Every structure is written in C-alpha cells, then in structure tokens.
Q: What sequence folds into this?
C-alpha cells in the first residue's frame, strides 16, 4: 500500500482564474523541487538527467516524477493547464507528498464551491501548507477551511465518517456556529453541550437553541413512546406538514411543540431528530426535506463569522526541511536563495581548483570530454543513485567541450566522485553547474 492524495469536492477552476491558478501550480512544483528525468545513452553507458517538468510532444499534461529535496522518484504525476486538472499516484510521505499536497490545497482557494484536500481519504491539518502558499505568493490565505465541521463532514466518504473534522480547528480559529451545531447533533459527539456552549460564547450566538432542540426531541419521544415499532405513516404526515408549512396536516396526537421547534431549526437537525425517532436513514430523509427548500435555521441571528487571521507564512527551507545551500539550482540574482558563509567559502575553493585544472591540465580533444563526462556520471549514479546532473549542464558542456573551464569542471567532478561521503558536495556542485547564471557568477564561465 502507498500514500495517495485527493480532493473532496468540485475541482473546476473558473475561467477568469485559470491563468493565475496555472502559474501558481507551476510555481509550487518548481519551488518545491519537482523535476522529471531524461535518459542519455552514449559510449555504451546510460545516465539520467534532471529537467524541469514539461509536456510530452503533442500532449498538454506537464509531467513530473522526482523530488530534488527528497532525492527520490515516485509514480508520475501531472498537471494539464488546458483543464486545470492535477493528478498524482503514490506520493510517499516526505517532500514529494508535501509539494503535491500544496497543489491540492491551492484548489480550495480557487474553486467556486467548497472542497478540501485529503490524504488517503482523510482530511488533514493544512496550516503549514497554507503558510507556505502565503510565503510563495505573498497571499493572506487563512484556515477557514476548518471553521465549519459539518461542511467538511458531508464530503467524507462513508468509510471515513468516523473521522473528526474538529481536529482541524486551531486554538482561536473562527467557528461557524450553525455548522458546528449541526455537526455535533448529527454525529452525536460526546460532550456536545459543553463544546456547543463554548462555541456560543466565542461567536455570540443565542443561548436557547439547545433548549429548542431538546424540547423537539422530547416531544418526538413522547409521540412515539407507545409504538412497538416506528410508525412510517406518522413520519410521512409529520414531514408533509413541515414541508408544506401546514400544521393542520399534523397526525393525530402529534405535539404542536415539535412542529414549532422543528420549524425553527436547521433542516439537518430536524432530519436527524426524525431519523432517530423513526429509525430511518438520516441522509435519505435529509435529501427529502431539502428538496422542498425548507430550512428553519435562518431564524437564528448568529451573525457573521469573526474575521480569520491569515496563516503565518512558512518559508521554503522550513517547509521543505532543507537549507538555501541545497537550493543552488533555484538561485536567481534577485531571488530568496542566500548561501551560508561555509557554502560561499566552499564555492571559492571550487573555483580556485577549476582555474588550476584549466591552467595545468592538457586539453582534451574530440569526444574525450564527453566520454569522461558520461563515464563520471555513470560511476556517480551507480555509487550514489540519488545524485543526478541537470540537463542544462550536460548539453551546455557538450556544446562547449573545447572550453578549458568546462574541461576543468568535468575533471573536478571526477575528483569529487572519488571522495568518500561525497553525496552532498556532488549534489551542490552539479546544481551550480546546472544553474548557468549562478555558474557564471561563482565560477566565471
């Protein structure tokens, strides 16, 4: 079994938001280290090169399978800009998972209807992901996704109805009082009254709605107390009276109290009380009542939710559990990658070594450079399978094989590959060589 991501709800992106949504998806994939692999076979050897996600010829879907920071490859995922559709298969539980999860959470802020991201069909706490989105896009996304547990609960498949959306609420998060009350009533959670009273206090909601529910429930219990089994005809007469707002249709002996209370309650709560009293399926009864557009919950003046505070931004290195020294391929002159003093000192040492090699080693001719490069990359990948060169470096070196500094760079790569515990310096060195503007700045070619 693996870990799978998904989304509960409609993922359709409105036309006027599609361009921005696509740009943000591509930014998430890029900054999150999502890459694809391309193979090259020369001189009897086959090596793999890292490249940015892209669509295959004649196709629209942009594909990826490797996460640079996780140093691992998973089943291919993809994004289709023409339909704004995103898909993944097995994603593991580290950076590959985190980055794909961020795309699914992004849908929550762009669709017209409510939806929520999931992992293995569980809804999860996305505050860290939302914080990263706020950092990437200088946005002010909040955690309101968790404010209405009933809205979340309705989206859960039957086999996940034991999950508790209340766990997604952070301390101080705004709560939708109606959504909270419906959820607590329908699920019959323990300590319902105490939790609801805390919700009332936080939201300034009226304090007599619980009494209204209790009175309606007692009235139904008295009405059905003498029945050996639930009387379906009584239920039909009750629902008919409610749907038509006609108390004269109440069955004989039916308490006016219930009809009055039910007319003042959200339709979900009324459906739950009736379903329990008459041993009926709650969801079917709810759908029947909803079809008549009846809902008494509007009579309660709960007011609007308090404004939600944006989630505190989370920078990329924190989110991806890496350092800026590991992000050399993402360095830009005006970007957010800032190397440590140790990294800068090491790069200076590398440059000095390259200049010495370029000055002192005899030049390579013909295919010698390319053969040395392929052979070195093959040895690296056999010894350290998670270390790959970037495609930009490979083809740039192939095009400038006569350059003394290019030849020196390959010779130095060969030297690094022979060292013990060289995985980290190799990855960083290859990342610098693959980032052509950075290579020009730190190595001078």
A:
């Amino acid at each position: 079994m693996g870990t799978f991501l998904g989304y509960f709800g409609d993922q359709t992106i409105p036309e006027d938001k599609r361009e921005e949504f696509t740009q943000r998806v591509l930014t998430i994939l890029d900054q999150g280290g999502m890459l694809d692999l391309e193979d090259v076979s020369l001189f009897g050897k086959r090596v793999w090169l890292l490249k940015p996600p892209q669509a295959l010829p004649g196709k629209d879907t942009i594909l990826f399978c490797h996460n640079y920071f996780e140093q691992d490859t998973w089943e291919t995922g993809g994004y289709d800009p023409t339909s704004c559709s995103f898909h993944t298969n097995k994603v593991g539980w580290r950076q590959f998972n985190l980055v794909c999860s961020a795309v699914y959470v992004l849908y929550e802020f762009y669709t017209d209807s409510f939806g929520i991201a999931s992992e293995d069909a569980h809804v999860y706490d996305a505050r860290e992901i939302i914080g990263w989105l706020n950092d990437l896009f200088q946005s002010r996304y909040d955690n309101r996704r968790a404010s209405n547990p009933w809205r979340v609960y309705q989206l859960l498949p039957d086999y996940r109805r034991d999950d508790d959306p209340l766990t997604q609420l952070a301390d101080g998060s705004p709560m939708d009082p109606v959504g909270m009350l419906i959820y607590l009533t329908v699920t019959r959670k323990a300590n319902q009254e105490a939790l609801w009273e805390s919700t009332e206090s936080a939201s300034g909601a009226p304090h007599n709605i619980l009494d209204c529910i209790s009175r309606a429930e007692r009235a139904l219990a008295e009405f059905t107390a003498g029945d050996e089994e639930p009387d379906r005809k009584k239920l039909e007469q009750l629902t008919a009276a409610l749907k038509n707002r006609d108390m004269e249709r109440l069955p004989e002996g039916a308490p006016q109290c219930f009809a009055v209370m039910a007319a003042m309650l959200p339709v979900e709560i009324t459906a739950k009380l009736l379903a329990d009293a008459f041993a009926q399926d709650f969801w079917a009864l709810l759908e029947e009542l909803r079809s008549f557009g009846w809902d008494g919950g509007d009579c309660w003046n709960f007011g609007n939710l308090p404004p939600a505070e944006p989630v505190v931004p989370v920078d990329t290195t924190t989110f991806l559990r890496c350092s800026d020294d590991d992000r050399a391929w993402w360095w830009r002159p005006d970007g957010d990658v800032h190397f440590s003093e140790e990294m800068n000192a090491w790069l200076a040492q590398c440059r000095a070594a390259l200049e010495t090699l370029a000055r002192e080693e005899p030049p390579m001719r013909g295919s010698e450079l390319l053969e040395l490069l392929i052979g070195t990359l093959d040895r690296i990948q056999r010894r350290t399978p998670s270390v790959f060169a970037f495609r930009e470096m490979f083809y740039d070196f192939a095009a400038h094989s006569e350059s003394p500094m290019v030849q020196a760079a390959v010779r130095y790569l060969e030297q690094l590959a022979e060292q013990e515990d060289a995985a980290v310096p190799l990855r960083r060195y290859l990342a610098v060589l693959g980032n052509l503007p950075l290579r020009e700045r730190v190595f001078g070619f």
Q: What stands out?
A: The chain has a mean pLDDT of 89. Strands lie at 5-8, 34-42, 45-51, 54-55, 62-67, 72-80, 85-87, 116-119, 122-123, 389-390. The chain has 18 helices and ten strands.
